[in-house]
């Protein structure tokens, strides 16, 4: 398993209050966000035990899903549902996203 996996799980935990606020304000956006938030660690886990192109595809999917979560939070802030993503949470997203970008070769 990748060393980034537990960091990603902590990011999921840290994002939980944001998702709960989205559920209160915009259930559709919250559902989309929760699906993407679940997808990221699931695809990292699957990719860790895949080979070749399947491994890269799973990591690429995790990367896209995690970026989608951040976009959900950014859109929610733009709509006035939540404040802007705080720097500590954003830094956690950037750390995991950067690792995934390196794993997929920057594509």
List keywords for this structure.
107 residues; mainly alpha; 82% helix
Layout: helices, strands, pairs:
Blueprint: H1 4-25, H2 27-48, H3 52-78, H4 87-103
Helix pairs in contact: 1-2, 1-4, 2-3, 3-4
Structure description:
- The chain has helices at residues 4-25, 27-48, 52-78, 87-103.
- By secondary structure, the protein is an all-alpha fold.
- The longest helix is centred in the middle third of the chain and has 27 residues, at 52-78.
- The mean pLDDT is 95.
Helix proportion range? over 70%
Order of helices and strands: HHHH
Number of helices: 4
Assign an overall shape: elongated
Q: In terms of structural class, how would the helical and strand content be classed?
A: mainly alpha
Rounded Rg: 14 Å
Mean pLDDT: 95
The profile of the biggest β sheet is: none
Unreliable runs, pLDDT <50, ≥5 residues?
none
Sheet-strand content, in percent, reads under 5%
**Count of strand segments:** 0
| Spatial gap, N to C terminus | 22 Å
Structure at a glance:
25% of the residues are buried.
